[in-house]
Every structure is written in C-alpha cells, then in structure tokens.
Design goal:
Length: about 425
C-alpha cells in the first residue's frame, strides 16, 4: 500500500490534534503534504511539525485550489460555514474528501447535497461521524437489531456539553453566533442526531423542540463585575472565570493557542475574546435545548442538550418491551436490565479512539475504493441534517414539525429563490 497523501484544511484543535496526531502515529500509511490555515501561528506550527515546504502551505483556500492537485484527499476541519464550499470544491478538483459536521450549515446548501453526492459517485465523500465506529454504539445497535430485549420503544439521550466547553465554544468562541455558523442542534449535536438514526434504523418523521439562551446574557453582568475576567472582583467565586478555565486545564489551553507561551496567554486574557466575561459577550446560542423525536418506525426519543454539567459526557437510556439499557460514553459502559430477572449485565469497554477508527476507515476506502458501502458517507447523513434544521424551526416557531413536509417546502422554496436570482 502506497502512502495516502493528505491535505489538511484547518490546523486548529481538530486538524492539529485529532487528525494531525493520527497521521504522525500512522505515517506508514498516510502523510500530510499540504495545509491550509489562515492563522499564522497555527500555520507555522503545522508547517514545522510536518516539515512542509513553503509552496505546500496556504493561508487562503482558493490559492490551494488554484494549484494542481497535490494530494489524494483533503480533510476539511475548518469553520462550519466553510465546510460545504471547501468539500464540494475539493470534489470538483478531483480529491476524495472527509468533512467535519455539520456538512452544510444552512438549508440552501443542504438542498443540493444529494445531487452533489450522486454526481461524485467515483469519489470517497465521507462525513466525520465517529460514533458510528464506537464499540459502545455498535454493541447497542447489535442488541437492538437482535430483538433480545424485545422491541425498542423509546430512547432518552443526554448530550452534556459541560460548562467549560460550552463557554469556550458557544459563549466566547467561534460558535457563539448561530447565524455565523449553524444552530446548536447541528454544531454540537449533528453527531447525536446521526447516531439516533443509526440506532433506530429509521428516519425522524416529526420533531418538537424547546430551548433558549437562559444564563449567559448581559442582564446577569452585575455592577461590581468587569467585562474582562482578569480585572474582575468576582474571579475567585465565578466558575466561568477565564483564568480558571484556561490556566488550570491543559486541554482548554490547547484550544486557545496552538503554540502557547505565558506572554501570548496573557495577551489573550487581557485583549482577546477568550478573556471576556461570559455575561458581556455577543453570543446568542441556546444554553439548554430539549427535543422530542418520532421516527417512522414509531420509536420515540428525547434529545437533551445542556451546558450546565460539570463534565462533558453523553449518556443514553434505551427502553424496550422486555427490558432497559443504560449506556455511558464517558465510562464506556453498558448496563443491561431484563424484566424477566433481577440480574444486571455490565459490559465495560476499553478506552478507544473512535476518531482514529474513522480516519483509518477513510484511508482504507481511498485505497480500496469500496464506494457503494461507505460506513459514514455524506449521503447517509443528509436526513439527520434535515432533522437538525427542522428541530431549529420547531423551536423558533413553537410547533411540531413534519419533517417530510418541511423538507419538501424547503426544496421548493430554494428552487424558486434560485430561479428568481438567475432571472435577474
């Protein structure tokens, strides 16, 4: 097997640590040959780590696409609002593509995605949906399909973002404005919607949703607080204080700066958005969202997304006609309780790297070209993306949304608007 040549689009946390580290650790099967990154510090650090020549390092994605094809594939891990453009342009240029979710951050783009997939059947076009490769979720799906617990009736799915991650991403960070990126249900939970379809082996038929921004709002900025955490008198008692979050947590520090020093961290906390009080930011993303889903096979589910937990985690309870199952993603544990007896069966999995499995699968598909059986194809994620947009509409309109009708109307409206624009 020849080494698969990869271009990384976006050298942030995912590009540098998730994909970059995998490539470093598996340099017998793949290698980085180019990077696109607009931030100078990230770009230079990535260039140094992977020993890239200057002509293989780009600040602008269009400069990269103007060059002759220089890799077998691109991995798109840039901003959500650029995923669709970069991925589809890369396909046009002849690259295989792995793209982070959400693949499309608005309905106009999503409407065209199915045709794009059909027109690129000769390419590996995969979405980064790592839960499909997780032993825990694969085991749950195996149990569901086996019917050993009877029929699945209901799923209670909790996506706990964790207070640190929420204020970093959705209050101070790049996902704080949903009109610039996408709704929370997609930026945080396109993976959750995808795995719900994967587990139920069905598509969502109807959805309702309730959520809003409750806590991280300007009216909670008290008179004795400062708009910068480093100058605030409440720093010792505030859990959201920037110094606590970024100075005491190595993972959070990595998210702030790719090449951290005391000097640039001081500058970030004194001048940048990550040092700002959580009650004085320009954020508008809901900090709590609960949705009710009805699937075409009559299974129902609740999806609860919350900022207000100590740790980031996902847990799930599945209720069957003959028992229940509880699964915890952080603990990598499944607990099975059958109604017929008092015995609990506990399945404990070793820690695994589902992202690594996803990347390896992508590389294998590039080599093997098994294009009709992609485990995480973009085409297979379109329905869950539609559900995400329907969820946001249900929340805003305070209605129960029929997803089939919502999608038909969205497609029709998009065609009318495009026809009108083209006629001018």
């Amino acid at each position: 097997m020849n080494k698969i040549k990869l271009a990384i689009i976006g050298a942030g946390v995912r590009g540098r640590y998730t994909y970059g580290e995998f490539i470093k650790d598996n340099n017998d099967i793949c290698e980085v040959v180019a990077v696109v990154e607009r931030k100078i510090g990230r770009k230079e650090k990535f260039k140094e780590i992977f020993d890239l020549s200057e002509d293989k390092v780009f600040e602008d994605i269009n400069d990269f696409f103007e060059k002759e094809k220089m890799a077998d594939a691109v991995i798109v891990c840039s901003n959500d609002n650029t995923n669709f453009y970069i991925a589809t342009t890369a396909l046009e240029k002849g690259y295989d593509v792995l793209v982070e979710g959400p693949v499309a951050n608005n309905l106009d783009k999503l409407v065209h995605l199915k045709d794009i997939c059909k027109n690129n059947k000769d390419k590996v076009f995969m979405a980064a949906m790592p839960f499909r490769y997780s032993k825990l979720f694969l085991k749950l799906r195996e149990i569901i399909l086996s019917k050993e617990m009877g029929s699945l009736i209901n799923i209670n799915y909790n996506s706990y973002i964790g207070y640190k991650k929420f204020v970093h991403n959705f209050v101070r960070g790049n996902w704080r404005l949903d009109n610039d990126t996408a709704p929370l249900i997609l930026t945080n939970s396109c993976y959750d919607l995808d795995i719900l379809e994967f587990l139920t082996n069905s598509q969502c038929e109807k959805i309702s949703s309730f959520g809003q921004l409750n806590h991280f709002i300007r009216k909670n900025l008290q008179l004795d607080m400062s708009e910068l955490c480093i100058r605030c008198s409440k720093d010792k008692e505030c859990p959201y204080c920037a110094q606590k979050i970024y100075l005491d947590d190595d993972e959070m520090i990595q998210a702030v700066h790719i090449n951290l020093t005391k000097e640039n961290l001081k500058n970030i906390l004194e001048e940048g958005q990550y040092g700002q009080c959580v009650y004085s930011c320009d954020n508008n993303v809901s900090d709590n969202l609960i949705s009710i889903l009805k699937f075409k096979n009559s299974i129902t589910a609740t999806l609860n997304i919350s900022a207000f937990t100590k740790e980031e985690n996902r847990n799930i309870t599945l209720m069957f006609t003959h028992g229940e199952i509880y699964a915890d993603l952080q603990e990598n544990t499944i607990i099975i309780k059958k109604f017929i007896n008092e015995k609990e069966v506990v399945i404990k999995f070793d820690k695994e790297n589902a992202d690594g499995k996803l990347i390896k699968a992508f590389i294998n598909e590039i080599e093997n070209r098994n294009l009709n059986n992609l485990k995480s194809s973009v085409l297979s994620t379109i329905n869950s993306h539609v559900t995400g947009f329907a969820c946001e509409f249900a929340n805003v309109s305070e209605t129960i949304v029929d997803i089939g009708e919502f999608w038909s109307e969205s497609c029709e409206m998009t065609k009318k608007i495009e026809k009108l624009l083209l006629s001018k």
